[in-house]
Amino acid sequence: xLKMTHLSKVYRTEVVETYALRDFNIDVKEGEFVAVMGxxxxxxxxxxxxxxxxxxxxxxxxxxxxxxxxxLGDNARSKIRxxxxxxxxxxxxxxxxxNVHDNVEVPLRYRGMKSAERQQRIKESLERVGLASRMKxxxxxxxxxxxxxxxxxxxxxxxxxxxxxxxxxxxxxxQMARGVMELLEEIHxxxxxxxxxxxxxxxxxxxxxxxxxxxxxxxxxxxxxxFHAQPRRVEVAAEGGAG
Amino acid sequence: xxxxxxxxxxxxxxxxxxxxxxxxxxxxxxxxxALFIIHQRVTHLSEPTGIDEANLxxxxxQWADQSSAQQVDAQMQADLATLRQLPAVRDATASNSxxxxxxxxxxxxxxxxxxxxxxxDASVYFGDTHFLxxxxxxxxxxxxxxxxxxxxxxxxxxxxxxxxxxxxxLADKLYPDGSALGKSFYAMSATPTTIIGxxxxxxxxxxxxxxxxYAYQALIWPRRLDGTVGTNYIVRAKPGQLEAAMREAKQxxxxxxxxxxxxxxxxxxxFAQVRHRAYxxxxxxxILMGIICAVLLVITGAGIIGLTSFWVGxxxxxxxxxxxxxxxxxxxxxxFQTENLLIAGAGVALxxxxxxxxxLWMMKxxxxxxxxxxxxxxxxxxxxxxxQGAVFAPALRASRVSPVEATRTV
Lengths: 243, 410
Ligand SMILES: Nc1ncnc2c1ncn2[C@@H]1O[C@H](COP(=O)(O)OP(=O)(O)OP(=O)(O)O)[C@@H](O)[C@H]1O
Ligand SMILES: [Mg+2]
Prior knowledge:
heterodimer, A: alpha/beta, 6-stranded mixed sheet, 4-stranded antiparallel sheet, globular, B: alpha+beta, 7-stranded mixed sheet, 5-stranded antiparallel sheet, 14 strands, 16% strand, elongated, binds adenosine-5'-triphosphate, binds magnesium ion
């Protein structure tokens, strides 16, 4: 699904060059749930923005769904973001001027979807996150956990194959974090590929695999193929860890 | 394509939206009325008066001593004789006023002595047998006054002279079938006056808006006005000798009798100067209106640029989010263009109503004419284009916001 080899990303300012990623290698298979961890400033967000085609990279190769994306123009990248990728951010990133319904509708409109289908999908995805009754609410009228669930609904509405989440629970308390995490696991079970950056080892432990980014380089540390078999235990552990 | 969500988002920015829409509305209302006024003012700036403007000049003459009406009349006759003998002068006459001077007499015209409502209005000139030749008026029917028809007249006299020369515009107004010559009318008196001559064109003495419908309705009474309070001499120079004639005339009059006052600054005016002065306020109004329009348009354009730039800055993050969710640069550009079109659309809709309202108000209060809706249409187009022009640069900047902005935590 997502394969980067010898990828590098350099931020150049007038005085310094920062290697946010160097000789970065990662291979995320279709349907995987990968947790990304690492110290602050190590390049986790940089990796996600490149993976999500929000930003270009400096060197190396990136294959998304088997296709090289380095030569794509802005419109093609927008189209891929719109159709294949869902984003969930730490700060929710809802559009404050739009109510819940209109927020979820944004990517669907950019896809040029017909109104009837849009309404159908908005309803479904909001029902899924348990917020169908809040369609007319504005983001400021919702709790953090609710906002993040709207953001997830927005990412889900377009049925993306790849969900990129940057510390989706970073701004949430334990209980809300657990709700969001369960939602992501559910989405994953339905077949989406998920890459989630988190600082929380408990949450990371619930992914199939953890990748550590240190100084712009990825270090694969664990595989937990039996995750699906024991969801309850992991959940209890997560709760205990926080309490 | 996405009008509904843009409107929804605008509802969260009511103050800015309403302010800009109102600004556009007011600008439209003022600009179309101003353009209308400018157009009206400048069109008649160059309308011909019907007189030989190139060779004419006027002398404003005041007396330095107190004399009786008879003495003044005799002095004026002597003055005119002097003027007519000057080498550079073709002819001269005295009158109460002349075209474009800015004020004068006006008679209500009726067809019967007891008519309550006037039939029309006419500007009044007094003239002797030299009046037509001096002004260079073209007699198209009938004859000039005979010397025996010209008599002195006091300004308080209410007796209407038995004969009159009228302009074609007045003749046609009174007798639309073209039979005016030899017919008569009443000019605020019980006795009729008979049309003995018709001149092609002679503009009235004032240029105010109210008189514009009657601009070329004038009549000439065969009278020498009582000149005790001062008089105007109208002098026609021989072709190409205007300046010499103006110099000679002043010297000649002073040599004839020193007991007079001719203002050194504007006592002697060429007709070109008279025309310039007459339309001074019109020209000034037109220029002022033009400046107001330009300033308003600039302010409105700047307001749109300012507000959109502010909004783009304020919405960088959400632009990034939209880009992350799949908006192309073009989508973002269109978003701001559509948003501006919606605001400007509301503005011009309100502005069109205000524009017509302002015109109606001015028609009532200031006797303005009715403005053609074409001005409103032109204003609407101008303001919509202004809006799109003003919004383009900030919208382009918005479209260049990187999708990575979505990940920046504010
Ligand atoms: N736009 C930028 N310009 C310059 N340097 C940048 C830019 N964005 C990131 N960097 C640098 O790249 C490096 C990696 O940043 P990144 O945001 O990917 O870290 P992170 O792992 O997500 O950190 P955190 O856990 O704090 O979110 C840092 O040194 C950062 O300063
Ligand atoms: Mg980060």
